[in-house]
Amino acid sequence: MSAEFDVRYTAGLARLHLSDEEIAKFQAQLSQVLEYVDKLNTVDVSSVEPTAHANPVFNVVREDAPRDWFTPAEALANAPRQAAGLFAVPKVIE
Amino acid sequence: MLPFLSVSELQAQLRSKAVSPLEALEALEARIAAVDPSVAGYLNRDFAAAAEAAKTADVTLPLGGVPIAIKDVINVKGQPCTCASKILEGFISPYDATVISRLKAAGAIPFGRTNMDEFAMGSSTENSAYGVTHNPWDLSRIPGGSSGGSAAVVAADEAFAALGSDTGGSIRQPAALCGCVGLKPSYGRVSRFGLVAFASSLDQIGPFTKTVRDSALLLNAISGHDSLDSTSLKEPVPDFTAQLGQDLKGIKLGLPKEYFIPGTDPQVDAAVRKAIAQYEALGAEIVEISLPHTDYAVGVYYIIATAEASANLARFDGIRYGHRAAEAANLLDHYGKTREEGFGPEVKRRIILGTYVLSSGYYDAYYLRAQKVRTLIRQDFTNAFEKVDAIICPTSPEPAFKIGDRSDDPLRMYLADIFTIAVNLAGVCGVSLPCGFAQVDQRSLPVGLQLIGKPFQESELLKIAHAYEQSTEWHKARPTIG
């Protein structure tokens, strides 16, 4: 299965640029990791339900009520770029 | 000397007014100035704000006036929170994590940020973007990870106690390698709100302390349901110190045969077997058990943890906070460059792996299969706990290794976690405590004993840990730093 593993393509899905050097290195290192995890294929899981997390709690909701939280200034305080009290985003429409 | 005290000992001094909270803080500041240039456990300290808090501290509160060091992955309002990553350089937390508001309500003073592997990904703290932390017992060695800074500052008496986070062993393994007590509570015991998420189904916050009693004191302060973390459970929170001092008559400890393997360092094996004999002498019954799916735990972990991490780290997009690439041709280029510049190599590796195992065509083969094997690993523990009260084994297969020894061999690094990972997958609780030393290159390196407890039975687990601790002298040993 890991023969089809392609770091360059996967990095694109992850919105992560990598140098050619990193691509070559990660391709080798992660192929080794994938080969290691292939041992899971030897386990019979045909009648096993998956576990998403350890405790069986579902659909936890809290009251949808306003509470004290960030002021706009606090929310913007860590923004790398801002304008007119808003987060400045890159241009998305040509 | 004040900084050498445990939390309980410091409290006694504060409450008898032999020492003021400000004097305790200043003594700690002097100790940090003396040893942290060698250990490099802290990324940041704010003594000015801490001194203000110390002046008004109420020492009658459960942790009144006690300064606590915090792993750089937990938000403290007004302090930096970088996760030891360049992508969060300059980030100042606008809010307190729930564990921090609870510590403050208990009178504690969170004053400093400890080093870690970037985004808690690693077992050596070498993956920090801000330099390596040194093991106080041998400065040429790693302190373990990912909470290596928290372990090192407690072991070096540069902190009375610290908080860390544990996703696959990140509290227990560094505690073992630095010779302190590290507790990973049951999944859902402690709120994760304000902990920067790595793998949300595995992450749990817990304390680093010099003694088991201190571990119980800190757990008392941080535990309990939180409406801001839907995975925190509405389980009653007992006084975790209440059972300390009780004897071990009738206690059954399980010895999992899969955790006593040839690859373990002989000195680690010997120290752990001696601890087991000590438990028998204390009245516990040792029962051989099997956790048959142990061999798959590392594989399951590196699929599930990276999958969750790839989703969690998608939030680092250079818009709302953190690093932003200077120039970008378009939106995709903006994301790609921002993340390329901000993340270090191990984080990139794990994002790639996690994205791959979730991607179309591979989800069933990797992620879904790993979740199914996780069920089997969890059942192993459920079955074992029908026979025994707790499980006893090594925390780490080896003592601390040399800095740089395996930083470019990810698979070998991942295998350092073989004894700690299954605990997170199963959601149970575990503690590491000192059980001796390995002599390596004329240095004494701490060895950790791991005890694994039933879900939400931390009281019982700490009772068992405390009985052993009090019957030995290991927790009193201190490193000579240099």
Task: For the structure shown, list the relevant keywords.
A: 94 residues; two-stranded antiparallel ribbon; 3 helices; flat; B: 482 residues; Amidase signature (AS) enzymes; eleven-stranded mixed beta sheet
Account of the protein in words:
The complex is a heterodimer of chains A (about 90) and B (about 475). Chain A has about 90 residues and is mainly alpha-helical. Chain A has a domain at about 1-40. In chain A, about 30% of the residues lie in helices and about 5% in strands. Chain A has helices at about 5-15, 20-35, 70-75; strands at about 80-85, 85. A two-stranded antiparallel ribbon of chain A has the order 1-2. In chain A, a hairpin with a 2-residue loop joins strand 1 and strand 2. The two termini of chain A are about 40 Å apart. Chain B is α/β, with parallel strands linked by helices and about 475 residues long. Chain B has a single domain (about 1-255, about 385-475), classed as Amidase signature (AS) enzymes, CATH 3.90.1300. Chain B has an eleven-stranded mixed sheet with strand order 1-3-2-4-6-5-10-11-9-7-8. In chain B, a hairpin with a 2-residue loop joins strand 10 (about 430-440) and strand 11. Chain B is globular and about 70 Å long. The two termini of chain B are about 20 Å apart. At the A-B interface, helix 1 and helix 2 of A face helix 9, helix 10, helix 11, helix 12 and helix 13 of B.
The beta-strand count of chain B equals: 11
What is the 3D form of chain B? globular
Strand order across the largest sheet of chain B: 1-3-2-4-6-5-10-11-9-7-8
Task: Give the number of helices of chain B.
Answer: 15
Q: How are strands sequenced across the largest beta sheet of chain A? A: 1-2
